[in-house]
Design goal:
Blueprint: H1 2-48, H2 57-69, H3 78-93, E1 97-107, E2 110-121, E3 128-134, H4 148-166, E4 173-179, H5 195-207, E5 213-220, E6 231-232, H6 237-249, E7 260-261, H7 268-271, E8 277-281, H8 302-322
The structure holds zinc ion.
C-alpha cells in the first residue's frame, strides 16, 4: 500500500513532465517548424543554388580577350564581322536561337551596313526581358582603339549570361541584344549615335513586338577593375531599384555608389517608347582612358564582369518569379 502510494506519487510528476515535453514538441513543430522550412527554402532559393552564382567572370573574361583580339571594331569593319560571327556561333553552341537584324544606317560617314545580333532564350511566357549592350567600338582616326571596356565588356557579359540562361527553365523569354552603331561617327547627337538601338526600337514598335517587352536591362562599360556603377537618372525607377537592391543583397553596394547622372545610351530609344529600362554603367573611365587606345584588356577584370553579371542575374531571377 505504502509502496503503491510512493509509486503513485512518483508516477504523477513523470507523466506531467512527459506531457509538457510533448506539448513543447508540438509547439516547436507548429511554429518553429514552418519557419525553419520557409527559411530553408528562401535560403536555398537565393543562396544555396541561386542562378546568380552560375555567372563565371573568368569565362566572360575569356570572351573579352577573344573579342579584343579581333582589333578595332567600328561599324562595317571586317573585325566587327568577325566579332559578330564569334557571338553568333557561341550562342548557337549554347542552344540559343540567333537572329540578325540587318539595316543600313545613314551616318555622317555615309551609308553604313549594320547588324544588331539577338540571342533568344525562350520561356513559358511570351513576355520578354531584354538584356542589351553594344559590341561596336568608336571609330577613332589614327588610333587602334579596341574598346575592351567600351564595347567589349558588354559583349562578354551578354555571352556568359546566355550560357547561364540557356541552362535553366525560365518563365519569361529572354533576348540578349548586341547593338551595332552605338558610337557616334563625328559628334554625338540625336542623329549621330545609338544607330542600332534606334533602329530596333522603331522596328519592334512597327511590328507590335515592343508591347511584349517587360523590361530592358542595358550594360555599358562594366568591366573596369575599379568598378563604380552610377544611378543613371533617365532609367525607370522601379527597375533601377530592383538592380540596386540586388547589388545590396549580394554585398556589392560599394561598387554601385557612383552618384546620379543622366546618360544618353542605348536604353533611351526604348524609354521614349514607354519600355521600362535601366542603364548599368560606370562613367569613371571618362576621367582617364575613355575613347583612347589605353582602353585595353589590362583595364578590365574578371571580378568586375562577374559582379555585374551576378547582379543582372539576381535581378532577372526576381523578374522571372514575378512574371506572367
Ligand atoms: Zn564609347
Amino acid at each position: 500500500m505504502e509502496l503503491d502510494e510512493v509509486a503513485g506519487g512518483l508516477a504523477a510528476p513523470v507523466t506531467i513532465r512527459r506531457r509538457r515535453k510533448i506539448q513543447t514538441r508540438k509547439t516547436l513543430i507548429l511554429f518553429v517548424g514552418p519557419a525553419v522550412v520557409v527559411g530553408w527554402f528562401a535560403w536555398h532559393r537565393f543562396y544555396a543554388v541561386p542562378m546568380w552564382r552560375s555567372f563565371d567572370g573568368a569565362r566572360a573574361f575569356e570572351d573579352l580577350q577573344n573579342v579584343v583580339h579581333f582589333g578595332p571594331r567600328p561599324p562595317g569593319s571586317p573585325a566587327l564581322e568577325k566579332t559578330r560571327q564569334y557571338i553568333s556561333v557561341e550562342m548557337e553552341v549554347d542552344g540559343l536561337e540567333v537572329w540578325h537584324d540587318n539595316f543600313t544606317a545613314v551616318t555622317p560617314a555615309g551609308d553604313i551596313p549594320m547588324t544588331n545580333v539577338i540571342g533568344i532564350v525562350p520561356g513559358e511566357s511570351p513576355s520578354v526581358v531584354v538584356v542589351a549592350g553594344h559590341y561596336d567600338t568608336a571609330r577613332l582616326e589614327g588610333m587602334p582603339f579596341v574598346g575592351a571596356n567600351d564595347g567589349g565588356s558588354s559583349t562578354a557579359l551578354l555571352l556568359e549570361l546566355g550560357r547561364v540562361l540557356a541552362q535553366r527553365k525560365n518563365r519569361l523569354t529572354y533576348w540578349l541584344v548586341y547593338f551595332d552603331g552605338e558610337e557616334a561617327f563625328r559628334q554625338w547627337s540625336p542623329t549621330d549615335s545609338l544607330y542600332g538601338s534606334r533602329h530596333m526600337a522603331e522596328q519592334l514598335a512597327a511590328d507590335g513586338r515592343l508591347k511584349k517587352i517587360r523590361a530592358l536591362i542595358l550594360v555599358d562599360m562594366v568591366g573596369d577593375r575599379h568598378l563604380d556603377i552610377l544611378r543613371e537618372s533617365n532609367s525607370t525607377p522601379w527597375l533601377q531599384a530592383l538592380v540596386f537592391g540586388s547589388a545590396r543583397q549580394l554585398g556589392y553596394a560599394n561598387s554601385f555608389s557612383g552618384g546620379t547622372y543622366p546618360v544618353e545610351d542605348d536604353h533611351v530609344p526604348f524609354l521614349k517608347r514607354g519600355v521600362a529600362a535601366v542603364d548599368i554603367i560606370d562613367l569613371t573611365p571618362f576621367h582617364t582612358y575613355h575613347h583612347t587606345e589605353a582602353d585595353a584588356i589590362d583595364k578590365c577584370s574578371p571580378q568586375s564582369l562577374q559582379l555585374v553579371g551576378r547582379v543582372v542575374l539576381a535581378t532577372i531571377d526576381k523578374l522571372d518569379r514575378s512574371g506572367q
